[in-house]
Amino acid sequence: MVVRSSAVAAVWAAMHLIGFAIALLALLGPAPAADDGCEKFAWSLARERAAFAAADKTSIATGETLAALPAGAFVIRLQPGPQASFEMPPERKPRTEQWHGGMVRLPALAKPGIYQITLSDDAWIDVIQNGRHTRSVGSTGRSDCPGVRKSVRLDLDGSPVVLQVSGVALDTIAVTIGAVE
């Protein structure tokens, strides 16, 4: 029979405890990555996600004319589809019978260039400038990112803009707009 001193026994117990902890960490593995698609858009929408999560978003009624572009996200209060009014008819018909829509007039832009409009929810977006629908130069969208659905980039001149959204399931939608940096 081998007699161990209390110091040796303590070291032996500590080594077993450390070994157990290492084995447990190995079984658990690395922390899982986020299971949503928020990092899988064609470009980063981290700033927009933060703006949508902010509690102090400006609320705007459909049909309003803004004096300046909001610095962060703003919420448009929409009308039911049959009552929604638009500067020009939406280029795409809504996919469902029950939908909401509306428009907001934005002031002349500070400078021409590529602007990005990001939406919190599924919707069709039309941007009207100089009496015509503008064409996007890029878009990205995902249905697996909570709070952000779509982002569109457009080449806009310095004139005023009419932003139209249609086909929205809810009666509000959060929006960000700004020059691409």
What is the topology?
Blueprint: H1 6-28, H2 46-53, E1 58-61, E2 74-77, E3 79-80, E4 100-106, E5 113-119, E6 124-129, E7 132-133, E8 136-141, E9 150-156, E10 161-168, E11 172-179
Parallel strand pairs: 1-2
Antiparallel strand pairs: 2-11, 3-4, 4-10, 5-9, 5-11, 6-7, 6-10, 8-9
Write up this protein.
This protein has helices at 6-28, 46-53; strands spanning 58-61, 74-77, 79-80, 100-106, 113-119, 124-129, 132-133, 136-141, 150-156, 161-168, 172-179. By secondary structure, the protein is an alpha+beta fold. The radius of gyration is 26 Å and the shape is globular. Strand 6 (124-129) and strand 7 (132-133) form a beta hairpin. The chain starts with 5 loop residues before the first helix and ends with a strand. The strands form two sheets. Strands 1-2-11-5-9-8 form a six-stranded mixed sheet, covered by helices on one side. The protein has one domain (46-179): Jelly Rolls (Sandwich). It contains two helices and eleven strands, in the order ααβββββββββββ. Helices cover 17% and strands 34% of the residues. Residues 23-33 have low confidence and may be disordered.
What descriptors fit this protein?
single chain; 181 residues; 5-stranded antiparallel beta sheet; 2 helices; 6-stranded mixed beta sheet; alpha+beta; Jelly Rolls; 34% strand
Question: How would you spell out the order of helices and strands?
Answer: HHEEEEEEEEEEE
Shape: globular
Radius of gyration: 26 Å
- Please, how many helices? 2
How are the strands of the biggest sheet laid out side by side?
Answer: 1-2-11-5-9-8
